[in-house]
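As a warm-up, study this chain.
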Amino acid sequence: MSTTLFNLQLDHVAQLQRAYATILADQGVDSLAIYSGHAREHFADDQAPPFQTYGHFMHWVGLADVQHSWLVIQPEKRPQLYLYAPTDFWHLPTQLPDEPWVAEFDVHLCSDKLGSDKITPPLSANAAIIGDIEPLTTSNQPTSKAAFQPERLLRALDELRLFKTPYEIACIREANRLAIAGHQAAQAAFIGAASELDIQLAYLTASRQRESHVPYQNIIGLNEHAGVLHYQHYALNAPKHRYSLLVDAGRRFRGYCADITRTYAGPDAPAVFGELVNAMHELKDELLKGVAPGVNFVTLHEQMHYQLGEILVAHALYKGTAEQAVEDGVTTAFCPHGLGHSLGLQVHDVAGLRHSDGTPAPAPEQHPALRLTRTLRPGMVVTVEPGLYFINMLLAPLRDTSVAINWPLVDQLMPCGGIRIEDNVAVTESGYKKLTP
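Now compare it with the structure written out below.
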C-alpha cells in the first residue's frame, strides 16, 4: 500500500478525533461506545449470512468484517479498540494489518473463544452506546447508565459521514478501479455468449473478490432481466438470443464501496437499442457536468427526466415534446428510480434524506424513489445513474390512454429489458471529480 494512502488515513483518523470531540461536547456526552455488530445465524442453524461491520465503527477501522468488537471514543484521549480475536482452530481470527493507523489506537485483544460476550468496555457515567446491540443479552451489554442509540447523536454522526475526507475519496476511487476490471470481464463474457452465472463469475474473478464480500448483490441481467431493477438471480444457461446485458456491480476497498452500472447492446438487439445505449451514456455525461457545490440533487433529477424526454422524442418512442413527456408521466414510466444516492461505507450511504440540521428532507411526492435530496457540497460522493427501461407493469397503464407513445417500437424493444449507466463522482470546491475510470 502506498505511503500516500497511509498518510491520508492518519489524517482521516485525526480529523475524526477532532470532529467526534466537537460532536460529543455538543451532545453533552463524555464517551461513546460503538459496537461492531456480529453475524446472526440462520434459524435453527449454525451458519450465518454475509456480515458487514456497523458503519460508524468502520468509519474509524476500515475493515468490513470485524465482529463482536467495541470502539470507545473519548475527547482528548486515544481511541480504545476492544478487538475480538479468539484463539481458534475452526476459523482464522481477526487480524489487524501491519499499517501505521493501528498505532493510533490502544488495542485490547480478547483471545478467549467463548469470550466475545465478555467484552464490556469501561464507560463513563455520561456515555452513549451505538451499534447493532439488540442481539446482545442484557447481561452482555456494557453496564452503564449510558444512552442507547441517541437519535440526535446518530444524526450528527451520519452528517459527518456524508462528507468524505481525501482518504475516503481515495478509497472509493480505488474501489472503482478494481470494479472496472470486473465490468470489462463481464462485457467480454457477454460477447462470448456466456450465461448470467458465468458473467457473474467472470466479474468476481477479474475484480478479485468472493461473492460474500461484494458491497451489494451484483445485478447481472440478460435481455428482459435488464428491466428488473434489482434482478436477483443468475440464470445457468445462456439465452438463445442476446439482446442486452445490464451489469450493476461493485467492489469494496478498505470498507468503501464502488457502485457502477453498464449496459451493452447484444448482436440480436434492434439497432435503435444500441442508439439508445449511446444516448444514455451521453445523458449521464451531461448530468455529470451539472454536479457542483450549491446544486440541489432534486434539480439534477428533474433535469434527467427532461433530457430523457428529449431522448424518447429523438428516437421516436414518444410523439410529442420533452415537456409533455414529463408532464404526462411518460418519463417516470420509462425511468421509475431516482438519479442517484450518496456513496461511502454503505452503497446507499447515510444522511441523503435529511437536511444538514438533521431534520427530514423526504423525496418529493412525484419522485418517491429518490434517495438523495440534498444540496451538493464539497466532500460529498454521489452516484449519477439515469435509466431507460421497457417494463410492461409500468407502461401498461398508459396503453389505454391518449398518451402518444410509439407502442410498436416499445414492443420491439421490450425483450431488451432496459438501460442503466452509472458513475461515481466526488463534489469538489469548483465542480466535480469523476471517480469511475
